[in-house]
Amino acid sequence: MKITGIGVRTFRYMSTTGRDSEGHSHPAPPHEALQGLITIQTDEGAEGYAFGRIAEGTLQGAIRPVLLGQDPLYRERIWQGLRQRQRLNLSTLADSVVALVDMALWDLTGRILGQPVFKLLGGYRARVPAYASTMCGDDLAGGLDTPDAYARFALWCRDQGYPAFKLHTWQPPMPGAPDVRRDLAACAAVREAVGDDMVLMLDPYHYYSREEALILGRGLEKLGFAWMEEPMDEHSMSSYVWLTQALDLPICGPETAEGKMQVRAEWAKHNAVDLLRGGVGDVGGITPLMKVVHLAEAFGMSMEVHGGGPGNLHVLCAMGIPGAFYERGLLHPAIDYEEPPPWLNQITDPMDARGNVHASHAPGLGWDINFDYIEQHHIAAY
Predict the structure, then answer these.
(1) Rg of the Cα trace of the chain?
(2) DSSP 116-152
(3) Which letter does DSSP use for residue 23 in this model?
């Protein structure tokens, strides 16, 4: 079997979320947005899919030459070829782009073999507990505009079955952000509202100083939080070594630091974090994320997977490290997360009443794709 093509079909849809100038998602009035369906085809008619957008020039110049004519089951060889191409194409062939190709290859493999990806990865469980991961703080009435608003939303999430809750607090360009005292006020309000039984975490502003991060961490220790992630610039690993030595509160990371599993190996070796962090989009796909999983296991560390989606979910269901949660979201009082996007017939991470998210047992990543919608709303294909 050989790969005969990889293409992207771009289509329109109506979105109710938007991004601020810093890239953070918030509720927004309905507006037209674009999505892409990546498809990898083989000479035997099998296809694999992923959703995201890849520039035509990147697809033509950097990706197709690596894939075409290859056996699709040689995923490691293909991923290594893409990784090597990144050296001179970092501005266009980002890890998030490589991740789309890698996920489509895993989806294709599952469809060829008739197995869900988490079983192909080894298989450890079919469901994983979720935490409610909020959008960043905002200034919207009825949104996440005050500490009390976070507390009310945490209670609502607890009532939906979530065993854990993570705050993303206010970040620029929100007025007054960042503010350690306001962050701690929101965390204290949530703890008071939900009591001691709910697991709580914080993802704050990512560029606090050492002193600010220390004050924040000591406040979270008093509130009984489970961990904090990325409170400082991750290009300064030594700052994280300093912070983990100063706090009993576990620190989770790195999240956005470039360097895939190699950088995470350095952070683990130097005790810069207590829990390793990584997601398919951060490190370049399912293939390298499993390397991070085994790295964490080798160091005796827990690992938290960054972000939702089927790629991350299937990795979580394949890893044997205990204690990890699935990050479900991003959630907001004004957003109905249970409503599938129009290009899918159902959401990819259904959650039961006990707060467990179930991986699909369908072949591949379990996409239930509404091809009719994509056909009716497509605007370009290449």
Answers:
(1) 21
(2) BHHHHTT---SEEEEEEEEPPP---TTSS-SHHHHHH
(3) S
Q: For 335-375, give the DSSP string.
A: --TTSPPTTBSS-SS-B-TTSEEE---SSBT---B-HHHHH
At residue 81, the pLDDT reads 98
Q: How far apart are CA 134 and CA 294, in angstroms?
A: 28
Residue 105 CA, chain-centre distance (Å), reads 19
Q: Give how far Cα 195 sits from Cα of 154, 159, 201, Å.
A: 11, 13, 14
CA-closest candidate to residue 349, choices 302, 312, 304, 305: 312
**pLDDT tens, position by position, 75-90:** 999 999 999 999 999 8
315-341 pLDDT per residue, tens: 999 999 877 899 999 999 999 999 999
Which residues, 6 or more positions from 45, have their beta carbon under 8 angstroms from its beta carbon? Answer: none
**Is the pTM higher than 0.70?**
yes
Cβ atoms within 10 Å, residue 74: 13
SS3 state at 325: coil
Task: Tell me the percentage of the chain whose pLDDT exceeds 90.
Answer: 98
